[in-house]
Write a structure and sequence with these properties.
The protein is α/β, with parallel strands linked by helices and 251 residues long. It is 34% helix and 25% strand. The protein folds into two domains: 1-105, Spore Coat Polysaccharide Biosynthesis Protein SpsA, Chain A (Alpha-Beta Complex), CATH 3.90.550; 109-179 and 188-226, Spore Coat Polysaccharide Biosynthesis Protein SpsA, Chain A, CATH 3.90.550. The strands form two sheets. A nine-stranded mixed beta sheet has the order 5-4-1-6-10-7-11-9-8, sandwiched between helices. Strands 2-3 form a two-stranded antiparallel sheet. A hairpin with a 2-residue loop joins strand 2 (26-27) and strand 3 (30-31).
Length: 251
């Protein structure tokens, strides 16, 4: 894998219902979307481009020195947005691996991004993603915590069989908190966005089930931590605390 093979795309939209304008939320003097771009670049695996439909986001990203592309405002999913962006920024089809990093993960460890991409070293894998073992009891039954269910291939890797908001699998053993970061083969992304929403996807409200129902292979890297996803004002305050602590530790 070379840096020309891999493209990191970060979808960003302003119309969040629980935290409007969150891509531009201030995190220690830096907009959240810029912090995500900075950490994505630190993974050092390829070009980083933000995909947005908002001029304010475009300006903030460009002012920070990162690439940005404007996309349509009517996309319903991040994967649709990054697919449009891919056509704009890589019309010559040089990138063979496309990473979708959510724009609301400002504490993500760059090593986690690399872990997802590394799964594609296996030619049989269409999509790579991440999960961490659930340690908090309440998360085992929370429908807001998506569980990755799969067959172990090694202590640090699963072949995904299902993703669910329910508590699964049944019985003794670990449960895994899915982390919504995806590394696609380009052909897999193209196929995925062309498919209609699948029955289980519609029922669970989990887009990745569309790929599994279509027979695509998703492997899951087991990592140590779940990056904080910022969806509410409380999450934003927590992110500020974590980044301030990180900055103080680095001094």
């Amino acid at each position: 894998m070379s840096s020309q093979d891999t493209l990191i795309l970060i979808p960003a939209r302003m119309a969040s219902t629980r935290l409007p304008g969150k891509p531009l939320a201030d995190l220690g003097g830096r907009p959240m979307i810029v912090e995500v771009a900075r950490r994505s670049a630190a993974a050092n695996i390829g070009r980083v481009v933000v995909a947005t439909d908002d001029e304010g986001v475009r300006e903030a990203v460009e002012n920070a020195g990162f690439a940005v592309v404007m996309t349509r405002a009517d996309h319903t999913t991040g994967s649709d947005r990054i697919f449009e962006a891919l056509g704009h920024v890589d019309p010559d089809r040089r990138a063979t691996r496309i990473v979708n990093v959510q724009g609301d993960l400002p504490t993500i460890d760059p090593a986690l991004i690399r872990s997802a991409v590394d799964l594609l070293d296996d030619e049989a894998v269409d999509i790579g993603t991440l999960a961490a073992e659930i340690a908090v009891e309440a998360e085992r039954t929370s429908p807001n915590v998506v569980k990755a269910v799969g067959s172990p291939l090694s202590p640090a890797r699963l072949r995904a069989l299902y993703f669910t908001r329910a508590t699964a699998p049944y019985g003794e053993g670990p449960l895994f908190h899915h982390i919504g970061l995806y590394a696609y083969r380009r052909a897999a992304l193209e196929r995925f966005v062309a498919l209609p929403p699948s029955p289980l996807e519609s029922r669970e409200k989990l887009e990745q089930l569309r790929a599994l129902e279509a027979g695509m292979r998703i492997d899951v890297a087991i990592v140590d931590t779940v990056p904080l996803g910022v969806d509410t004002p409380e999450d934003l305050e927590r992110a500020r605390e974590l980044l301030a602590r990180e900055a103080a530790t680095a001094k």
